[in-house]
Amino acid sequence: MPAYAPPMAAPGYGKRSAPDQKPKAEGDFAHLPARVAHIAAYIDRLPDGAAVDGKTLAKEIALYGQMAVLSALRLLEKAGHLFRFRDRVGENGTQWAWRTYFSRTAREESWWQRLRRGDAPKEQTPEPAPASEPAPEPLEAEALEAEPAAAEVPVKTPRARAYAVLAQVGLVDPRLPLSASECAQLAPLAAEWLVRGVTDAQLMSGLTAGLPPDVHSPEAFTRKRLIAKLPPEREHVAPAPDAGAARPRLQECRECRVPGRPENLPGGLCKDCRGGEGGEVPVGEVAAVHELCADIRAEMRSMRGGRNPNRRI
Fold this sequence. Notes:
- The protein is built from ten helices and five strands.
- It has helices at residues 34-45, 54-61, 66-79, 109-117, 138-146, 158-172, 180-195, 200-208, 218-228, 283-303; strands at 15-17, 82-89, 95-102, 251-252, 259-260.
- Helix 2 (54-61) crosses helix 3, helix 6 packs across helix 8 (200-208) and helix 7 (180-195) runs parallel beside helix 9 (218-228).
- It starts with 14 loop residues before the first strand and ends in a 10-residue tail after the last helix.
- 14% of the residues are buried.
């Protein structure tokens, strides 16, 4: 008799297991009510890609009705084991679909949001050493503790980077040999280039490009060039929106289906569905919603045969 296979959702829309979960153990869901724990354990056993919507689960489990299953799914979301959000899919993002993640390890809302963005923190649980493995010798343990960690490598300041570039100028072009004291005196001027967004390679090119045949005073020549060719201060200018670029990702409230940015829908609920908490809706979110509605109206006009785009619907 072939093994039972649970119903699978369309590719990409079924259950997705969250990363870095603890190993399965008895009592993983003991803190939940009995019905919710039973449904959670069932979902935990399902393979990735299985359909985990309320209607399918009610048919599969057969002990609870569809409303009871939906209620249990909401409780699993509140407990941090389930994360669902609606995302725009399809060509030009004109369709909405559910994304469902499950974790036997309860997660905070902030962790789920980071997972949605693709940068969820990894939790490393040290594995217990086998009983037969001997304990490390004291000398080996001291050597491990004395070994510097890679994360403790200091980051160079602009002045340190500038000094390093100046020290290499004479090797790149022999006409500009600089002593250690001269490099230290010129480092503040060169560091200003780096502060203004110039890379180390660009600084080197600015000092060595177009040199005269003979340089009688390398220190004076380098100082004059650092001052005369100092790049301007650049203000950060946001790039112009590209017509073909992806629109800002929006998410729908799981109760009233109002679209909004994910950070403004904690727990998948908008302000009204949370009982009015959370303050005013940010102006940027309102503008994004209006822009989305305008795009939808424009697409509807084009589908109706190219009617007048200025005509109000």
